[in-house]
Design brief:
Jelly Rolls, 222 residues, 8-stranded antiparallel sheet
Length: 222
């Protein structure tokens, strides 16, 4: 500012001394050129400053991403339990009951008990109990693996209590003649540790199912 002011004073003085138009124009050109040069340098400095700030901001963002990304865990893929990886093995009743959290089963030694294992994940998926009853029988699937999805979908309209848990079930009784009836029952118990699914069929006298009596005989609360 002081330098420009000094030049302006000199110019004013010179203009007063020299009255020819050519000299006046030359002096004005010098002053204007000096002012434009200073404005150009100032603009260039501002651009450099803005560019530096943007670069610093970009570097800060990249550094943050590098720090945070390892902390972000990828979504865990759900397990795929393929039937081709499943094997069935015979097990003792004591082994089944030891693997259950809330219930114990009481069946005779002739009852078939199978354990289904996934060989890929090396995990027990569920147990199968097959109980013969007269002409029909009961199959019980006990799911102990919480990741395994067992397809069993029925609408229930009846229930009984087993300890503090409920067994919900539905039954269909078709009377073939005046003497016997075909009984089909589906039921389930769901808990936070194990889910149990029942499928029962039998031919009984009259139209009364003995499903509930059989349940009370074979399963109890631990």
């Amino acid at each position: 500012m002081k330098r420009n002011k000094k030049i302006q004073e000199i110019a004013d003085y010179s203009l007063a001394e020299y009255h020819d138009e050519k000299t006046k124009n030359e002096l004005k050109t010098i002053i204007q050129s000096n002012k434009a040069a200073k404005e150009y340098k100032l603009g260039k400095r501002k651009k450099l400053l803005v560019s530096s700030l943007v670069s610093a901001a970009v570097i800060a963002i990249i550094a943050t991403l590098i720090t945070v990304m390892p902390l972000i865990k990828p979504a865990q893929e759900s397990k795929q339990y393929l039937s081709s990886n499943q094997i069935l093995t015979d097990v003792e009743l004591s082994s089944l009951n030891a693997d259950l959290s809330y219930f114990v089963f009481d069946v005779n030694s002739q009852t078939s008990i199978l354990k289904v294992t996934d060989t890929f994940y090396n995990e027990t998926l569920y147990y199968i109990i097959s109980i013969p009853t007269g002409i029909g029988g009961m199959e019980i699937n006990i799911i102990t693996n919480r990741d395994y999805k067992f397809l069993f979908d029925y609408q229930y309209d009846k229930k009984i209590d087993i300890g503090e848990f409920q067994l919900n079930y539905c039954e269909d009784i078709k009377q073939d003649d005046n003497i016997s009836s075909l009984t089909t029952v589906y039921g389930e118990i769901k808990t936070d540790k194990e889910n149990i699914y029942f499928e029962y069929t039998d031919i009984v006298l009259g139209n009364e199912s003995n499903f509930v009596d059989l349940i009370h005989q074979i399963i109890k609360r631990k």
